[in-house]
């Protein structure tokens, strides 16, 4: 089966949760309304932290897991199952044969892994004078805890792989799932990412790096201002998102509703600096995705940008889009960053933004960039300030550019006739 | 039954949501749905409750009576 033919890969299910709410649909609804999920951060932490604002999941969630899984796995894994279950329900995939289960994979992304479990263990030892950590600490902390839980919940027995490439983790997970199905390694996959790190240790570490936004005291919800002249950095977000991918034949054979098609994936590395983004490497990722799909830049109507609202990041991405698309096509393309409203969900970001992008494509509405009131002259592309637009979107792209110099671009289309 | 076994049965009934009358010295951990990982977690909690430490090599127990005997002979912590 492997490598015998090239298959088309479609999306048949979406799931998501973030500071915007629970469910894939609410992410898109808030995105097109430019409504922010960012608020004052007041969750309890083991020691005081200086985090003025964040995008935190507000709902009390029902994970539909047994007591053992709830105590053994981290919140990151619980969120993974929550969104995977939503995506599976939408896809209608169930009652797979033993042979089909062997050809079903899990591709998951997370930046920090089981942050809550690790922070809890450190609290026990360093703050509460306990002599030992709880027995399940390793299971909760390990980065592939989410993939492990998903495999046991679904009984998928093909590859279960975890990608930890900081802010591009879940884009790589989805891209690699796409490749695995395209080249016949598996027939279907759950792909996505999850992140939950509102614990004292990680927050302190982010504070120290000086990349977080200064709060907008007039409007805390608007503290993240991608592509704006007065942008000051990103706002941390908690979230998870999942997609069900499958071969076109698999989806057609069972009469599944097809939400879109993944047609290209570019993965490149800057190999220059561990944190400073490089527009050359980013442009190569976008070009690779377009080349794989055989798509002209003028056909790409919408880009969901990485758009973190850092000083250098937004300029680098502006330049990389110009380089990859050419100036004329770049200026014509509608571009936005939805991080303005859901914050930066790090390892979940690529999946969450692709879930929004797929719905943009499906509904022909390009979400605007919230809180973009004063355009930065160096970010002079069509960044859809403050408002979403109706737009025929045959193709759309989602970018994720990570610390470590890892770049990932994913190109999607409506189901193509050919 | 020993005092340790009585306390153990009470703790186990709470932890696994079982009726005390359904538990006895011959009740096995397996029958409670406790696998190898669950046994490690259970022993961890029992060590804290009884303020003892059980070496890894001694934790090969299956029935509640065996667990109670293990706790009675375990090394107390200060």
Structure described in brief:
Chain A has 418 residues and is α/β, with parallel strands linked by helices. Chain A has helices at 24-33, 67-72, 75-91, 98-102, 115-127, 137-141, 145-154, 169-182, 200-209, 248-253, 279-293, 311-325, 327-332, 339-342, 349-363; strands spanning 9-18, 21-22, 39-40, 53-54, 104-109, 160-163, 188-195, 239-247, 260-269, 300-304, 334-336, 365-366, 389-390, 395-401, 406-413.
Strand content of chain B: 5-15%
Query: Main beta sheet of chain A: strand number and arrangement?
Result: 11 strands, mixed
Which strands sit side by side, in order, in the main sheet of chain B?
1-2
Note the total helix count of chain B: 3
Cα radius of gyration of chain A in angstroms: 20 Å
Q: Supply the number of helical segments of chain A.
A: 15
Give the overall shape of chain A, derived from the CA principal axes: globular
Extended strand count of chain B: 2
Q: How many extended strands of chain A?
A: 15
Helix-strand string of chain B = HHEHE
Helical content of chain A stands at 25-40%
- Are there runs of chain B of 5+ residues with pLDDT below 50, and where? none
Largest sheet of chain B: 2 strands, antiparallel
Going by CATH, the homologous superfamily of the largest domain in chain A would be Thiolase/Chalcone synthase
First-residue to last-residue Cα separation of chain A:
23 Å
> Largest protein interface?
A-B, 7 and 5 residues
Instruction: Please provide the ordered H/E string of secondary-structure elements of chain A.
Output: EEHEEHHHEHHHEHEHEHEHEHHEHHEEEE
Q: Report helical residue fraction of chain B.
A: 40-55%
Q: How would you state the average pLDDT of chain B, rounded?
A: 91
């Amino acid at each position: 089966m492997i490598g015998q033919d090239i298959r088309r890969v479609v999306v048949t299910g979406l799931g998501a949760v973030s500071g915007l709410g629970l469910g894939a649909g609410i992410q898109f609804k808030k995105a097109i309304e430019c409504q922010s999920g960012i608020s004052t951060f007041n969750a309890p932490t083991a020691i005081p932290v200086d985090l003025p604002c964040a995008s935190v999941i507000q709902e009390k969630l029902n994970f539909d897991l047994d007591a053992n899984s709830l105590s053994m796995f981290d919140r990151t894994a619980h969120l993974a199952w929550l969104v995977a279950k939503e995506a599976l329900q939408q896809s209608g995939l169930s009652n797979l044969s033993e042979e089909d289960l062997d050809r079903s994979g899990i591709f998951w992304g997370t930046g920090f892994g089981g942050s809550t479990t690790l922070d809890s263990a450190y609290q026990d030892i360093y703050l509460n004078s306990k002599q030992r950590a709880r027995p399940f600490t390793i299971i909760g902390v390990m980065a592939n805890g989410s993939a492990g839980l998903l495999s046991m919940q679904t009984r998928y027995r093909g590859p279960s792989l975890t990608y930890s490439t900081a802010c591009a983790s879940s884009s790589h997970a989805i891209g690699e799932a796409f490749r695995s199905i395209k080249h016949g390694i598996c027939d279907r996959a759950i792909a996505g990412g999850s992140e939950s790190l509102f614990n004292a240790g990680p927050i302190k570490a982010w504070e120290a790096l000086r990349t977080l936004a200064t709060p907008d005291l007039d409007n805390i919800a608007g503290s993240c201002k991608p592509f704006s002249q007065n942008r000051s950095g990103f706002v941390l977000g908690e979230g998870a998102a999942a997609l069900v991918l499958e071969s076109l034949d698999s989806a057609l054979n069972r009469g599944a509703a097809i939400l879109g098609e993944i047609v290209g994936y570019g993965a490149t590395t800057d190999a220059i600096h561990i944190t400073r983004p490089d527009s050359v490497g980013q442009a190569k990722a976008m070009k690779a995705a377009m080349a794989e799909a055989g798509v002209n830049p003028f056909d790409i109507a919408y880009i969901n940008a990485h758009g973190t609202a850092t000083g250098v990041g937004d300029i680098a991405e502006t330049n990389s889009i110009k380089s990859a698309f050419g100036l004329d096509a770049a200026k014509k393309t509608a571009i936005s960053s939805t991080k303005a409203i859901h914050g930066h969900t790090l390892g979940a970001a690529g999946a969450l933004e692709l879930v929004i992008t797929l719905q943009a494509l499906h509904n022909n509405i390009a979400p605007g960039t919230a809180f973009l009131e004063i355009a930065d002259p160096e970010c002079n592309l069509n960044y859809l300030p403050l408002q979403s637009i109706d737009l025929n979107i045959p193709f759309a792209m989602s970018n994720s550019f990570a610390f470590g110099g890892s770049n990932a671009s994913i190109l999607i289309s409506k189901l193509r006739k050919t | 039954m020993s005092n340790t076994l009585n306390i153990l049965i009470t703790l186990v009934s709470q932890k696994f949501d079982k009726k005390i009358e359904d538990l006895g010295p011959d009740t096995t951990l397996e029958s409670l749905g406790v696998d190898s990982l669950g046994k490690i977690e259970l022993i961890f909690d029992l060590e804290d409750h009884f303020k003892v430490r059980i070496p890894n090599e001694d934790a090969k127990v299956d029935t509640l009576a065996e667990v109670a005997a293990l706790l009675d002979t375990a090394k107390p912590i200060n």
